[in-house]
Design a protein that fits this description.
By secondary structure, the protein is an alpha/beta fold. About 25% of the residues lie in helices and about 35% in strands. It has one domain (about 5-220): Rossmann fold (3-Layer(aba) Sandwich), CATH 3.40.50.880. The two termini are about 25 Å apart.
């Protein structure tokens, strides 16, 4: 009789404490277990150099803001994703990690640049042409009061939701700018999911943010 293999999740958390990496990732562990994943937690990127472990991992969830990773670690992660391991995360824990690693930025497809004004009121809107994507299906737009991430991305990303930076007399940009807020990316055989929301634990508890984040984790998994 053929046995079903339990899917494996590797959570890598740490870095800057301001993004509450332990508390934020703990929010999703019960959800992952309910969906049949075995969860293993690491407090740093050293595990990314373990090719055998990453090859057996179906999903990496990273919540590790700033910090540093060696070339061996980053290239090990990138190779695993290219071979089919999923990669997912939110806010600075995934798109403001390992700033000195071009190979990491290349795989993730976006880098935090600024959050003008600090905590502000802003809106996130699902891209109408992608509203049928399983991650955002049934969602439309919602309001948040938190950091609005301005990110630098490239055209290989499949942008599912955006947020628009408006023009004021004191802003150096002179026209409204719609910036990616949620995207996916194909990296070899692997899938990447990134949400820019999640500075505060309350952000992750917003019903729409929680829904799309949970869906994104499942979508990215092998």
């Amino acid at each position: 009789m053929e046995t079903t293999r339990t899917r494996q999740v590797l959570i890598v958390r740490g870095g800057w404490d301001g993004h509450s990496p332990v508390e934020a990732t703990e929010r999703f562990i019960p959800f992952l277990k309910e969906h049949g994943f075995a969860v293993e937690v690491h407090d740093g990127p050293e595990v990314y150099a373990d090719a055998e472990k990453l090859a057996a991992t179906d999903l990496v969830i990273q919540c590790y803001t700033m910090g540093a990773a060696t070339d061996e670690q980053v290239l090990g992660l990138s190779a695993a994703v290219a071979a089919g391991t999923g990669m997912a995360g939110w806010h600075g824990g995934v798109c403001d990690s390992f700033r000195n690693s071009p190979d990491y930025l290349h795989m993730i497809g976006g880098q935090w640049a600024a959050h003008p004004g600090g905590f502000v009121d802003y809106e996130v809107e699902v891209v109408s042409e992608r509203s049928d994507h399983e991650i955002v299906r049934g969602l439309d737009r919602w309001q948040l009061h938190t950091e609005q991430y301005w990110v630098l991305t490239d055209a290989l990303d499949d942008v599912l939701a955006t947020t628009t930076f408006t023009v004021r007399d004191d802003t150096p940009w002179r026209e409204p700018f719609a910036c990616p807020a949620v995207w996916t990316r194909q990296w070899g055989l692997g899938k990447v999911f990134v949400s820019t929301m999640g500075h505060k634990l309350e952000d992750l508890d917003h019903p729409d943010v929680r829904t799309l984040t949970e869906r994104g984790l499942l979508w990215a998994s092998r």
